[in-house]
Each structure stands twice: as C-alpha cells, then as structure tokens.
Amino acid sequence: MAGLKIEGITHDWGARRALDTVTLAVEPGRFCALLGPNGAGKSTLFGLLTRLFVPQSGRIEVAGHDLAREPRAALTQMGVVFQSSTLDLDLTVRRNLLYFAALHGLSGKDAEHRAMAALERLGMAERAGERAGALNGGHRRRMEIARALIHRPKVLLLDEPTVGLDAASRAAIVSHVHDLATDGLTVLWATHLVDEVHADDRLAILHRGRILADGEAGVIGGDNLSTRFLSMTKEAA
Ligand SMILES: Nc1ncnc2c1ncn2[C@@H]1O[C@H](COP(=O)(O)OP(=O)(O)OP(=O)(O)O)[C@@H](O)[C@H]1O
C-alpha cells in the first residue's frame, strides 16, 4: 500500500509499556488524526515512525517500503513536523527551506522552485524573504510544514503541530493540511484536540498505548466527538 502501515507495534520504556500492539493502516491521500490524551504514546509512535529508535516488535511500512528493511527508501517518502520547532530564526524563510533542500541533495533552480512551490501550498510565498524570527507562531509552523514537503514525500507526519498557537492560526493550519491530503498526501496528525478532527477524517484514538477506536471520525464520534473521546479515555483510565 502506498500510504502508511503500522502493524503490531509494541514498545516499552523500561517497565512501562508505551505502545501495545498498535496497528493502523492509513490509505493514500487520507487525513488520519491520531487522537490521544497526554501520555497516550503519540510521541513514542512518532519516534518509531521516524526511526529515532526501533520498535521492540511489529513493523512499519511507508509508501510501500518496509522501514526496517529499506530505511532510506521509506524515509525519503516521509515528511515530518516534530512537536518542537527546529527552524533557524536568524535566516530568511527561503534560506531555511534551501538548507533543508540541500540535506536532501537538492540545489540550484530545482531547490528554489521546490521551496517556492512548497511555500505557496501553505500560503507563505509572500513571506519568503522575511526572517523566520520575525514571523508569528502560526506562520513559523506553516513554514515548517512547507519545509517538510520540499522533497515531495508521499506521507506527512505531524506531532501536535498546533501546540501553543491561537485559535485562528490553528484553524488555518488544520485547513491547509486537510487540503494537502485532498491533493493526495497521506497525513498522520497527532493531537489531543478534538476540534482539529473533521467528521470525514480517518480517526484513531490512542490511550495508554492502545488503539481504542479506528474508523471514520463522524462514525466514532456520533453527535459529539468531544464527549465520546472523554468517556472512552475515562472508561479505560
Ligand atoms: N524517553 C522516555 N523514557 C521513559 N519513558 C518515556 C519516554 N518517552 C515517553 N515515555 C513514557 O511513555 C508513555 C507515552 O509517552 P508519549 O510521550 O509517547 O505520549 P504522548 O501521547 O506523546 O503524550 P504528550 O501528549 O504528553 O506528549 C508515557 O507514560 C511517558 O511517560
């Protein structure tokens, strides 16, 4: 499958089981929200998906490539936006993107073209010449998402990308990333905020390392996803 496949992933931190046989398959071009309260295991899963560490059992496939057996091919198809920002605030937006392009072996006109195209997709093209440090939090985040797209990945992972942003900035980013999925990108969006999930999104609810629900958000949530999410994570607490 060209999307993202997570099969039977288990991971322990010492005596603590952070992930317990987590299985999730996200179809190509789908926005999947990974919704979980604090400590659910979202960041641990992202660490495994990005190969910061390896799972103790289970397997991961990115755009058809097994992460353990073909790590380079799998990681090439992956764009990542981590929870903490990793921008160089002294550089312009454009320069930040070009440095990242160079890390992917891209340079010259090709890199320039890709940087501008990625910024355009996030509605940031007119800010290309501004210093990253002069941007507000929402624009910095959009710039990081643009940067994650520069090597044209098929799968985009975002770990709580709206933390610390105001409501308008959050809404803009949520909307931009949904548009990316509509254009064909496979998206895994980790969050603990129910209002970032659209009714027709794919939704996986993670709590204490286990997937409690997996399906269409509107179906799982019924009339009120917030209430449903609270009751599910409370029941299992
Ligand atoms: N490096 C680590 N060493 C030991 N325990 C860890 C480590 N990282 C996470 N944990 C534990 O694993 C569990 C899952 O944590 P994780 O950070 O993956 O959850 P999360 O859903 O990302 O939470 P948050 O929303 O608070 O970031 C928690 O009990 C946490 O304390």
TrEMBL record:
Sorted UniProt keywords: ATP-binding, Nodulation, Nucleotide-binding, Transport
GO MF annotation list: ATP binding; ATP hydrolysis activity
UniProt similarity note: Belongs to the ABC transporter superfamily.
Pfam families: ABC_tran (PF00005)
Protein name per UniProt: ABC-2 type transport system ATP-binding protein
InterPro entries found in the cross-reference section: AAA+_ATPase (IPR003593), ABC_transporter-like_ATP-bd (IPR003439), ABC_transporter_ATP-binding (IPR050763), ABC_transprt_ATP-bd_su_PQQ (IPR022467), P-loop_NTPase (IPR027417)
Record-annotated ABC transporter domain positions: 4-233
